[in-house]
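step 4 of 6: structure.
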Amino acid sequence: MSTETMASDSLELKPGLAGFFDDWGSDQRAFKGVPWGKAMMWIFLVSDTFIFGCFLASYMTVRMSTLDPWPSASEVFALSFGGAPIPLILIAIMTFVLITSSGTMALAVNYGYRKNKWVTFWLLLATALLGATFVGMQVFEWSKLIFEEGVRPWGNPMGAAQFGSVFFMVTGFHGFHVSIGVIFLFIFSYKVATGHLDKQTPGWFTKRGGNYEEIEILGLYWHFVDLVWVFIFAFFYLW
Amino acid sequence: MDHAAHGHEPVIRQEEAIQHPLGVYFKIWILLFVLSAMSYAVDFYQVQGYMRWFLILLFMVLKAGLIIAVFMHMVWERLAMVYFILVPPALLLTLVAIGSLEADWTFFQRGVYFLKELIIAAPASPHH
C-alpha cells in the first residue's frame, strides 16, 4: 500500500454508504470521530434495547395466549379529581413530564458544548427534578395499584393474572432506569457547577479528564429512557 | 499494518463539531408534545379496532424516530454508527414472530385442555 493511499484513506472521511464500508473496513477503529465513551454508551444502549425488546415480546406472548380477559388499562389507570374519573390521566401526565425532561436534557447537551456552565447546570438540574417527579408519580401509581386495586404479580381482581406480572416487570425495570438516570443527573449537575468539566478534573473511577462530551453521553442514556417509555406507553397503556 | 497511519487520523473534537442551532430542539420538543397529546387522544376518545392500533403505532414510531434522530443526534452520525445501532434491533422482529406463533398455539391448547377439564369435572346432567 503506498503512502499516498494511506494518507487519503485516513484523512478523508467519505460520506454515505461508501463511508460506511470504508469505516468498517478500516484499520483500528470503525467509529471515526466518535469519542470512545459515546461509542460504549451506544453499545450499552443497543444491549438494553434487547432487554426491553425481550420484555415487550414476552408481554405480547402472554397477552395473546391467556384465556382470561385483559384488564383495560384505560380504566385501571383512570384517576378522579373530584369529578368523573379521567382515563389514563396519570400516565399522560407522566409522559409529558418525561418528554419535558428530554427537552431540557437536549438543551443541556447543546449548552454544554457552548461551554455555558450555568445554563447547562440549571438545565441538568431541571432534568433531574423532572425525572424525580416521574419516579414519584410512579411510586404513587404502584401503591395505588397494590393497596387499592389489589394488583399482584401473580394475580389481580380485574382479569388475566399476567397483567400484574408484566406491569411490575416492565414499568419496574423502566423506573429503575429512570432512578439511575436521576442519580447521574444530580452527579453531573454537581460536576458542572463545581467546574469539574471546565477544569478537566478526572472523575472518580478514571484518570481521564472531565469533558462536556460526558453531558452528551449522559443525554444519550436519558433520551433512551424516554424512548423506552414511548414504547411502554404505546404497547402497555394504550393497546 | 503501518502504525504511522494512526497519526494521520483526523481528530474531530466534538465540542467544535457540534453546534446545532437551538431552534431545531424546540421544534422537535413541540412536535413530541403534540404527538403525545394525539396518542393520548386515541385513548381519551376511545378509538377502537384497527384504527386504534394503526394510530398508536404511527404516533409511537414518529415519536421514537424524532427522539433518536434529533435528540440522540443520529442524523449527524456517520452511517458506520447508524447501521450498527439500528440494524441489530431489527432481529427483535424475529422474536416477535416466533412469540406470536407460540402464543397462538398455547392459546389453542389451553382452549382444548380447559374445555376437556370442564367436561370431565361437570356432574352428570339429568339429560344423560
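step 5 of 6: annotate
 - The CA atoms of residues 200 and 206 of chain A lie 12 Å apart.
 - Chain A has eight helices and no strands.
step 6 of 6: archive
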